[in-house]
């Protein structure tokens, strides 16, 4: 296995259990000289050292309380003694802890207390060593040394807290981006499923409607003249093959990204669509702009599917003998293409036999291009579908 580079190596960190054992070990190490000192030198000082060191056991969970306890212990020491003790090491550790684990306000307050305590300790300890040592040079040197311990501990704790906040922000941002990417992928998949459902509905509804109409007509005609059924059966076979090819194309898109893709219908394909409807027995008048307007592929597909679904509805709902009119025109004033399909049959008065799903698909297609769709009974009878799609 390849050796990890230094740039990719993760920093070593203690876990929660390791942090607890580290604090216990630190406290025990600081307490080791306390018992001999209390027994041999001064029991009172031993109690003071215990009061200053023992709170470090919980310095991560309760940094403010630990700093307060250590600071009070050091204050009592300043009142009772005029010399430093081994336990003074607990103060910079408590200062680091409050700067690392507490809020910034508490951290700044601890720094002020530490600097003030450094001044008190300077005068108390120099005076304990001899009043003649209380010169400006000695005070400045002594205060600077003690304050430096406080400032360094506070700085290290603040840097640790800032770095942890930065890491937490990066982690939160990464999790948020991952959630957003997952949501976007889910929305994209849902939109693709809706698009494929609309395509399959249009293909299946159009093909099956043509097949049903031709089959009914052939069955009725076969009673009088069986020879006229051949064109109907030819239309049924052609329509079925076309529908199967369309379904295979769309299912191939679902199975593999590299599946062969047939060209999407364009406005020029409306002419064969109208001829197909006529061959299926529906009289259709075509009023198409000449030349057909140049539109994007998405607008062309939407217009084609609207005409296809509307003609399917005419065959299903308008009744025998109904004539459909397909009109495609360009509206320069609004900068949109107008697609209108009307019939003079009884479609508006018949029950909604699945037409609602087709109209819903039309509305979704038109809305995707910020267009408008109006459907309903036509003046003088029949049914009208009119879509305005911005270019």
TrEMBL record:
PROSITE patterns: HIS_KIN. Its EC number is 2.7.13.3. Residues 305-391 form the Histidine kinase domain. It catalyses: ATP + protein L-histidine = ADP + protein N-phospho-L-histidine. InterPro entries: DUF7134 (IPR055558), HATPase_C_sf (IPR036890), HATPase_dom (IPR003594), His_kinase_dom (IPR005467), Sensor_HK_TwoCompSys (IPR050482), Sig_transdc_His_kin_sub3_dim/P (IPR011712). The keyword Transcription regulation does not apply. GO terms for molecular function: kinase activity. It is an enzyme of class 2 (transferase). The chain crosses the membrane at residues 21-40, 64-85, 105-127, 139-157. The keyword Signal does not apply. Keywords: ATP-binding, Kinase, Membrane, Nucleotide-binding, Phosphoprotein, Transferase, Transmembrane, Transmembrane helix, Two-component regulatory system. This is histidine kinase. It comes from Nocardioides ginsengisoli.
